[in-house]
Amino acid sequence: MAELNQKPLTDVQLKQRKLERKIEMRHHVTSFSLMIFLTFAAFAMVALELDPLIITAAVIVMALVQVILQFYYFMHMKDKGHGFIRLFMLVGMYFAIAFVLCYVLIVWIGLPIGSV
Amino acid sequence: MAATAQKRSAWSVIWDYLTTVDHKKIAILYLMGGGFFFLLGGLEAMLIRIQLAVPNNDFLSAGMFNQVITMHGTTMIFLAAMPLLIAFMNAVVPLQIGARDVAFPFLNALGFWVFFFGGVFLNLSWFLGGAPDAGWTSYASLAIDSPGHGVDFYALGLQITGAGTLMTGINFVTTIITMRAPGMTFMRMPLMTWTTLVAAVLIVFAFPPLTIALFLLIFDRMFGSNFFIVEAGGNTIIWEHFFWIFGHPEVYILILPAFGIFSEIFSIFARKRLFGYSSMVFATVLIGFFGFMVWAHHMFTTGLGATANAIFGVATMAIAIPTGIKIFNWILTIWGGSIKFTTPMLYALAFIPSFTMGGVTGIMLATVPADYQFHDTYFVVAHFHYVIVGGTVFAILAGLHLYWPLMFNTMLNERLGKWTFWLFFTGFHLTFLIQHWLGLWGMPRRVFTYLDGQGYNLANMVSTIGAVLMAVATLILAYNIVMTIVRNERVGKDPWGDGRTLEWSLPLPVPYYNFAQIPLIRGLDAYQIEKEENNGEMIPSEPLDDFHMPNNSFIPFVMSFGLFVTGFGALYFASGKDWAINAVSNMPVHDWALYVLIAGLAITFISMGVRSWKDDLGYYVKKEELERDLAALEEERGAN
Ligand code: HEM
Ligand SMILES: [Cu+2]
């Protein structure tokens, strides 16, 4: 609903903007190549037929790193003004982990917790 | 207002409401939609009570009884209580925080129409081969077995309405976080806004588990998957967990806005600032958070084991602490106030003991060994009616009287209102108090009749008489509403005389743009502060200037209609297919189902496309128009 309040930028501001964009771009490219590398590493491990247990653990860890990169660098969670979004995601994640843990313990493993 | 209140053709009014994106009109739509389903659910309740009035009754057959109780619970929770609360959220919250509309007006309209079509879809089951009959909780072991399409109507209907509710939740979270007037910090938000915020957050987190559970059920019943089919390695307990992970937060979605409405009422009619405001906020947030950690208290008897039961039992009892904080704060708000016994205040006063009794039985139920005795008896029925009727329904009735002038700029008749209150209050306690004993004596819930000589006869008759009183009270309310609309005696600004929050500072009827100038908020109870310090005039926070408003749109209606059509396609898809579950595999084959499904999705997606690719830039309200409106108000004030 706000008005578009566009004044031409001064030279200094323009330079500042360009610099910010450049740094942002570098961050993007770095995290993108890191993500590609992680994906490649995951496939490579499967191709090398390592111990499934190691592969599972490593893939989960790498997936987590990817998720964090994705959120922070590509979906701008590192930028200012994302406090609420971060709060919501952390709370949601907390609930989700609690739910999954419960499912694993009392539905999947199936033994009543007290009996082990 | 004579200039704008010209006679309009009925069709133009209807078209206006079909396309509106104005939160005030959407509130009226929710009120009508929710009110209709409330009457329907009430009718079903009367059928239940008639059937149970005497032993060995055959007024309803056993199968019919199961359909009626299922539809009663489902309708009341999803189609009546929640939409009616959302009606008040829409009517009040944007005005209370000083916004010109919600954050996503289009989404708001879409939310309503999706809810409405979902509700209609669910209720069409009565005419299309029978309603769902597996209880409002639709436990998978029953739901998978239930023959015919009843449960499919439940799963698809709730999936559709649930989507609407989720949209509304997202909308209110965004609105309250981003659109408060200058000066309205979080700790200056009125309690109605706070409870709406927390309830909306709960919607955002609680509805996705329901969506997933319903999808699993839909896939099992309509597309041949095996999530809940035990013979094929499925597990029906998963449904229970999913359902209650949604279900317990859901009961807080129902009660928190009720707390908000009552907090407003107490401070308006005790003419005092709310006692312990910050502890109220703290308690609200805490209840919302705890609400997610206790779902398994509905499953104590499923065999989770002693440790899990103990953890969930204790967690459940912890919720009583923030709830207790609230109760004491309300009592201390009334304490020493100069109380006006208006109809809303009567409901609020009656709410405290009634709801507290429900809370106490809740703690009893959370005591695991005792719950083995109480579970699935009338004791549970008594518990949740005490909290839901004594809390949520009282709040809806109170809010209807309180906010009626804000929504329709007339006043409901107070004398009739008090008749409704006393009859409803008496009827409510008559109906449900005695059900505690019925439960302790061993009468199971959800069973269609009982034998003579078990000692249940008198108590059931008493309960039915109470229900009749509530029905009479509802009829008086309906008469009151009709008479008020017919008489049409307009009231002006701050009709209760003691409004404290921003919404009461607006002229009635509220202009379609709400605020000509967004006001500056100087504290909690913003309007009261200006009454004391500035002669009741809000201080503007911006110069008078043009501002932007969204256009009406018919697309939400079409988009929702598409989902409605899709529902029928999905529903009949598995009919008569040999891969389908037994419940539907011997039904007649419907070859058209797949095409209906595709057509419905096409309607929805094409209208989404139209919405996305066709720019709709809205319009500007011009400064000249605002000046004219303000001058007219000034003149009106001079005339009085
Ligand atoms: C102090 C707060 C509360 C506690 C400790 C509590 C505890 C419980 C427990 C343990 C049950 C399960 C009983 C059983 O099935 O054996 C239950 C059922 C229920 N409660 Fe509460 N409750 C509380 C507040 C509320 C509120 C505020 C609402 C709604 C506004 C509510 C609505 C329900 C409903 C609808 C059921 C029955 C669900 C069903 O099986 O159909 N409760 N409550
Ligand atoms: Cu619960």
Automatic annotation (TrEMBL), chain A:
GO cellular component, alphabetical, reads:
plasma membrane
Q: Name one Pfam family in it.
A: COX4_pro
What is the protein's membrane topology class?
Answer: Multi-pass membrane protein
Q: Extract the InterPro entries matched here.
A: Cyt_c_oxidase_su4_prok (IPR005171)
Keywords (A to Z) from UniProt: Cell membrane, Membrane, Transmembrane, Transmembrane helix
The answer to whether UniProt assigns keyword Lyase to this entry is no
- Name recorded for this polypeptide: Cytochrome c oxidase subunit 4
From TrEMBL, chain B:
**Compartments, record wording:** Cell membrane
Membrane spanning residue stretches: 27-48, 68-93, 105-128, 153-179, 191-219, 251-270, 277-298, 310-332, 344-366, 386-407, 419-438, 458-482, 554-574, 594-613
Domain Cytochrome oxidase subunit I profile, chain residue ranges per copy: 9-522
Q: Which reaction does it catalyse?
A: 4 Fe(II)-[cytochrome c] + O2 + 8 H(+)(in) = 4 Fe(III)-[cytochrome c] + 2 H2O + 4 H(+)(out)
The record's listing under SUPFAM superfamilies reads:
Cytochrome c oxidase subunit I-like
Gene Ontology biological process: aerobic respiration; electron transport coupled proton transport; respiratory electron transport chain
Topology in the lipid bilayer: Multi-pass membrane protein
Keyword set, alphabetical order: Cell membrane, Copper, Electron transport, Heme, Iron, Membrane, Metal-binding, Respiratory chain, Translocase, Transmembrane, Transmembrane helix, Transport
A single GO molecular-function term is:
cytochrome-c oxidase activity
GO cellular component terms attached to this protein's record? plasma membrane
Please tell me which top-level EC class this enzyme sits in.
translocase
Q: Which InterPro entries match?
A: Cyt_c_oxase-like_su1_dom (IPR023616), Cyt_c_oxase-like_su1_sf (IPR036927), Cyt_C_Oxase_1 (IPR000883), Cyt_c_Oxase_su1_BS (IPR023615)
Q: What is its EC number?
A: 7.1.1.9
Q: In which pathway does it act?
A: Energy metabolism; oxidative phosphorylation
Membership in a protein family: Belongs to the heme-copper respiratory oxidase family.
- Name-wise, this protein is Cytochrome c oxidase subunit 1
Question: What is the species of this protein?
Answer: Aliicoccus persicus
